[in-house]
Design goal:
Blueprint lengths: L5 E4 L11 H10 L3 E8 L5 E3 L20 H5 L18 H8 L5 E6 L9 H11 L6 E5 L2 H10 L4 E6 L6 H7 L4 E4 L1 H4 L4 H7 L3 E4 L5 H10 L2 E4 L2 H13 L1
The chain binds SN-glycerol-3-phosphate and magnesium ion (MG).
Protein name: Glycerophosphodiester phosphodiesterase family protein
GO molecular function: phosphoric diester hydrolase activity
InterPro entries: GP_PDE_dom (IPR030395), PLC-like_Pdiesterase_TIM-brl (IPR017946)
């Protein structure tokens, strides 16, 4: 049986500020199979790694990412209120890829085009990944399925996944019909009825977010689903226990 994978959600964000280099470095150190991160575009067209459209929640600044140049964003502290990380900054996608490139970790790039439409973000990110020779290590996902369609048009061989927020009938058939290989449902979503089993039976790769509790981690990995978690250390311990038993 194939081993399920553990992805660090926004890095090892239970231990270090989300979507920062310390969080991704820690995920690597803890032995995660992959990281998940979110991308937006700055005013000067740079790809940056941050979750929200606005900088308010995770930095000491205010306003939209797209209204800042990269240099202006760099002046912000991205410690997300966590002690000991005053030096943390919003990283570029290139910096995160360069950090993890020497290892084997996979990178789930979530394209944040659900609220704002960043013109050309898909192609820019794709070319960056290709230019760094990491196309075989990247999984593209988005709640905006048109962004995934764009990735597929530009790179039909790319690994792609649909993020699911709501529960959609026959979503596994819809994904397969679009040539998408992965489903990323929310934890609350697969707890309903037999959805997890349906998704797993479809043969698509199922990566459930955001799974932080021990019981949920044990259940999902035991069933054969990959997990996207803020706490890769805990998830890996639980996986070791499942493998041993
Ligand atoms: O990609 C999984 C998860 O990150 C999706 O939701 O809001 O945490 O980006 P969000
Ligand atoms: Mg995300």
């Amino acid at each position: 049986m194939k081993q399920v994978k553990v992805y660090a959600h926004r890095g090892a964000s239970a231990y270090a500020p989300e979507n920062t280099l310390p969080a991704f470095a820690l995920a690597m150190e803890q032995g995660a199979d992959g990281i998940e991160l979110d991308i937006h575009l700055t005013k000067d067209g740079e790809l940056v790694v941050i979750h929200d459209e606005k900088v308010d929640r995770t930095t000491n600044g205010t306003g939209l990412v797209q209204d800042y140049t990269l240099a202006e964003l760099r002046a912000l502290c991205a410690d997300n209120g966590m002690d000991g990380f005053a030096e943390a900054r919003i990283p570029t996608l290139r910096e995160v890829l360069a950090l993890v490139k020497p290892g084997k970790m996979l990178v789930n790039i979530e394209i944040k085009t659900g609220i704002l439409w960043y013109d050309g973000i898909e192609e820019k990110a794709l070319r960056l990944v290709e230019g760094m020779g990491m196309q075989d290590r990247v999984i593209w996902s988005s709640f905006n399925h048109y962004s995934i369609e764009k990735i597929r048009q530009l790179a039909p061989e790319a690994a792609t996944a649909y993020l699911l927020g709501d529960i959609i009938c026959d979503v596994e058939k819809y994904a397969a019909a679009h040539g998408v290989q992965g489903l990323h449902p929310g934890l609350y979503n697969v707890k309903m009825a037999d959805l997890l089993q349906r998704y797993l039976d479809s043969g698509l790769t199922v990566r459930v977010w955001t799974v932080n509790g021990a019981e949920d981690l044990r259940w999902l990995m035991g069933q054969g689903a990959d997990v996207i978690t803020n706490d890769p250390k805990l998830a890996l311990e639980i996986r070791r226990g499942l493998t041993a038993s």
